[in-house]
Amino acid sequence: MEPSVIMSERRQLINLAYRMLGSLSDAEDVVQETYARWYGQSEAQQDEIENPAAWLTRVAGRICLDILGSARVRRERYVGEWLPEPLPERAEWAAPADPADPADRVTLDESVNLAFLVVLESMTPAERVAFILHDVFRYPFPEVADIVGRTPAACRQLASSARRRIGDARTPTTPPAQRADLVRDFQTAWAAKDITALIGLLDPEAVAIADGGGIVTAKLEPIEGAEQIARGLLEITTQLPGLTVLARTVNGQPGLVIQENGVTTTVMAFEFAGDRITRVFAVRNPEKLRPWA
Fold first, then answer.
1. How confident is the model at residue 139 (pLDDT cuts 50, 70, 90)?
2. What does the buried/exposed string (b/e) look like for 161-185 if buried means 16 or more CB atoms within 10 Å of the residue's CB?
């Protein structure tokens, strides 16, 4: 098997692993380990594998399943709220001269929307893997079963359960142009310190979640209510008057990037329902902001 053929699967594997884990760095580690196992075989063993792409996917899927199981234990010890690692749009990658950068290979669509990834966090590892393999990447249930270690019927049930979780969390659709308008108005109101405008853009029961990972300052508990969120935002600008707030695409959706002295310190993503913002996700953990450096 030509090495170029094997390496051409890298993009698909990164896509798969990021959605399963919500972390680009973990996804990169999974793909590296997958290729290590492939090249750890003898040439004869490699030649016996009829479908190398399926073999690579099966190995990567199983590694992700193991990581998701241990991640639950790790996140119990995580300081404050845990959010997925946000991704910039392709045009904003830090190193365009390095096309081999795995980050550049992640396809941004609805299934990497940060709010969507947060819902995936509520699933069991088996539900998440079965759902992503079948509903997002269209793998048939017999292949999913081989990866998850369950019967095809059991995997069908897992995907169905995951679908219900997605349905329960679904909010009224907001058209893409309206999402962009809401975020732009949010940015303008924040810059103007217009608390009335901010409150008007937020759903009365909106929730803001910050992830500092215990490394940088961040609220350890979610902030609930439009007024409380608006006051918290104005408090930030009062404490740090030199902030620059930029409109950026975050995981394929309109978002904001906050910089201090030219350094990205926060990436904000949003969830929408109708003409209001219902969730504000603020990722501050610097370990999760590497692609934004």
1. very high
2. ebeebeeeeeeeebeeeebeebbeb
pLDDT in tens, 197-234: 999 999 999 999 999 999 999 999 999 999 999 999 99
**Three-state DSSP string of the chain:** CCHHHHHCCHHHHHHHHHHHHCCHHHHHHHHHHHHHHHHCCCHHHHHHCCCHHHHHHHHHHHHHHHHHHHHHHHHHCCCCCCCCCCCECHHHCCCCCCCCCHHHHCCCCHHHCHHHHHHHCCCCHHHHHHHHHHHHCCCCHHHHHHHHCCCHHHHHHHHHHHHHHHHHHCCCCCCHHHHHHHHHHHHHHHHCCCHHHHHHHEEEEEEEEEECCCCCCCCCCCEECHHHHHHHHHHHHHHCCCEEEEEEEECCEEEEEEEECCEEEEEEEEEEECCEEEEEEEECCHHHCHHHC
The pTM for the full model equals 0.88
Reading the block at residue 278, the tokens are 């219902």
Q: In the predicted model, what is the mean pLDDT of residues 51-58?
A: 94
Q: Are 224 and 235 in contact (CB under 8 A)?
A: no
Distant-in-sequence, close-in-space partners of 127: CB < 8 Å, separation ≥ 6: 158, 159, 161, 162, 165
The tokens describing 157, both together, are: 């049930």
Distance CA 164, CA 177 (A): 28
Q: Could you tell me which of 199, 221, 198 has the C-alpha nearest to residue 211?
A: 221
Q: Following CA atoms 136, 142, 144, 145 in sequence, which dihedral angle do they give, to the nearest 10 degrees?
A: 150
